[in-house]
Amino acid sequence: MESFDVVTECMSFMLNEQFMEKFVDPGNHNSGIGLLQTYIWHGQFLLPFVSLGLMCFGAVIGLCACICRSLYPTIATGIVHFLQGLCTLGSVNCYVAGIELLHQKLELPENVSGEFGWSFCLACVSAPLQFMASALFIWATHTNWKEYTLMKAYRVA
Fold first, then answer.
1. TM spans, by residue (predicted)?
2. pTM above 0.85, yes or no
């Protein structure tokens, strides 16, 4: 394994720099483009935004379900929560895979600890909660379906 001089200073990246290709060896532009590293970086950058967008979309659908008093938007809200959980789980997995790939290429400096932070722990807790919310929405729709169809038949009669 080659030894690299590691510079430990923070740098901010512009939005277009987030989508640049990553290289097989970090910092070595002659090592070739690493597709795995590039796609993992894109996943850990984009999936949280997709999850946030799905959360807002699910809130609007849930509001429509309350206003319309229909079960179809409730099913849609459950499906959106399930997709949201998949995006959160995918972003956590991309983050862990990216860190593992980086640690294979570079060793940590002596004064840096390689621990996951509190936001990572919150994301790990968030994904199962989103799956549970999805299951509860779908279960509530399923249990109220018979009662809803009986009310609908009563209104027609």
1. 45-68, 75-96, 116-140
2. no
Q: Which of 80, 75, 84, 82 is nearest to 50 (CA)?
A: 84
d(CA 108, CA 103): 7
Condensed to tens digits (0 to 9), the pLDDT of residues 59-80 reads 899 888 878 877 788 888 999 9
Kindly indicate whether the domain formed by 21-156 is annotated with CATH number 1.20.140: yes
CB atoms inside a 10 Å sphere around CB 83: 17
pLDDT tens profile 126-155: 999 999 999 998 888 888 766 655 555 555
Angle 68-71-77 (CA atoms, 0-180°, nearest 5)?
95
Task: Give all strands (DSSP E) within 5-156, no chain letters.
Answer: none
CA 50 to chain centre: 7
Cα distances (Å, whole numbers) of residue 5 to 12, 27, 41, 136, 144: 20, 10, 23, 52, 63
